[in-house]
Task: structure prediction
Amino acid sequence: MKVDFGDRLFSRQTAVTVLLVLGLVLAFAYAVQLSYFGATDITNAFSYQSAVVAAQRDSELLEAEQYDANAGGVALRPYQTLLASDLGRIDTQAETKAERAPPFSFPATRQEYETLTAQLEQRAQLGQDRFTATVAENTHSRDFSNALFACVALLFAVVLGRLRRTIEEGRSLVERLQAAFVSRRREIRNVDLGSVLLSATRGSNVGGDTHDAFTLDGRNAMFMVADVSGKGIEAAVDTALIKYTIRTLFSVDPDPASVLTRFAAMYEASTEYASETFVVLFLALVNLDDGTVRYASAGHEPAWAILGKDVISLVPTGPIVNSELAPVFETHELHLSPGDALVIATDGLTESRDARGELLGASGVVGWLSELRGSAQAMADAIVRRLRRRSSRIGDDLAIMIVRFSPSRPPETRG
Result:
């Protein structure tokens, strides 16, 4: 049988085309594997680490409540549930027997808590090793894929972009978690609420100041402003603990002073915190029907109450959290008439300096509040505008919350 040269050439071109198509298919399949499974491995490693960290914190809170605060069974149940849930998450994300959650049953002795802490530390190291190995493997695979993607530039760009996004998501995990922790604006019955949260850390939207507004039941709402020592990501991590711990404590005890006392004991018992860390905190419980306010503050410099045309200072009712052992706090009470308001701000306001280096101070804030009018949010925004005109830059984190009692506001929308 005679074979023509053209036939041989055609066959060779066909073979090359098939090989190229096969190479592109393999490159695509490999890209999909890197993009999907590599990202999944990194996400799973992060999820495992997050579960271990959460279980460590839950264990410390439960131990502090059981032994330091001498809480009863009903008060301990939320902490037991949280710990059990996070131990279950560890088991779900574990890849080996060694990574499984350690056994633990409640009630537990001090020794059993110490054993659990040591075992969770081991899991934390295993999680770190797993994450490091996953990133290294993913990086190696990505380098190899670059050679394949040279033939398919568009596919290469798409997959590489996805891989970069995956790695960037891992690096910004703390910031994304903090974004979820920041209180969103919400409607609260009979309250006109205004707030501002600014970070002094350049290039970051997170810091050590935070605020929270939360409806406890149909009649009462909790308002909080806190200032954690430090700035940036490290301080931002603490704000999450403060926000949800305070909410949990208020769910079992409506007295602000009692909540601060129990929170201070839990914070001081946490081993992560060095002796120089502290929290300045203001809590207010507002009766949404009659405007009665019960408040307590941990070292917070004066908050203010706008009562008619008068502006009065609300002095601290106890020491800064973690500044002394067994701190004592008091709950004070005042009454808001329709149109009256609470104004709470961290020291980024009073300690702001003008071009001559002079502090604004509490008296300067009183002067501003005597002049400002409008809605709660309009007043908060006006304070920030005045602050920016007076100071060249925001030198400290700043949280401002204005709570005006407005009985004519519609009921809160429930989803």
User: Anything to note?
Assistant: The chain has a mean pLDDT of 78.
